[in-house]
Write a structure and sequence with these properties.
about 190 residues; alpha/beta; Rossmann fold; seven-stranded mixed sheet; 7 helices; about 30% helix; about 20% strand
């Protein structure tokens, strides 16, 4: 399968996909892209704007995975609004733009968009909730429970200690999608 992995981060979702697919990953941050390149040297890596790449290349792929930034939607961040140090931010509408775009134009590929459960009612109804995230897809996806040890392992890992250019390693690791979920979704697509 030809797969597009947008907002790839360090590739948590991709971790259990193996090497039999033709995977193109897009990551904006060069330091994070370096980690992805080291972990998945056989993938094509684009350091650049994921939305721009999607708009130009969406028809070239069998599967599209998109994990746009979640911080402005996060319940955790916005639960701190009573603190004096809290800085208010508007939710980044890029999430909703990507979902709406794929709903209209993503008919050729199977697609999935992943993000946190927002502090507000989602503007577009998700397909399913898995773990601590919501997923929007154009294929059936059922809820499934994932064992806690997998969640703890992928969040508390110290796998970035050698990468000195990454400033907030904890945040980068917390942004990593549970690899078991990435594997589960890929298997559902391939059914």
């Amino acid at each position: 399968m030809k797969i597009l992995n947008l907002f790839a981060g360090i590739g948590g979702n991709r971790e259990k996909w193996g090497n039999k697919h033709d995977i193109t990953a897009v990551e904006f941050d060069p330091a994070i892209a370096k980690v992805y390149a080291d972990r998945y040297p056989n993938d094509t890596l684009i350091v650049g704007d994921a939305v721009e790449y999607l708009l130009k290349h969406y028809l070239e792929f069998d599967m599209i995975w998109s994990s746009p930034p979640c911080q402005s939607h996060s319940r955790v961040k916005n639960s701190q609004y009573t603190r004096e140090s809290y800085t208010a931010v508007l939710p980044d509408v890029m999430l909703w733009q990507i979902i709406a775009f794929l709903q209209l134009h993503g008919r050729k590929a199977k697609w999935v968009v992943e993000n946190v459960m927002p502090y507000y009612t989602p503007l577009i109804e998700p397909t399913v909730k898995l773990d601590r995230h919501l997923y929007w897809t154009n294929f059936p996806l059922e809820e499934k429970t994932f064992k806690k040890e997998h969640i703890i392992k992928y969040v508390k890992s110290d796998e970035l200690s050698e990468y000195k250019d990454i400033k907030n390693k904890r945040q980068v690791i917390r942004n990593k999608v549970n690899p078991k979920i990435g594997e589960y979704i890929l298997k559902q697509i391939m059914l």
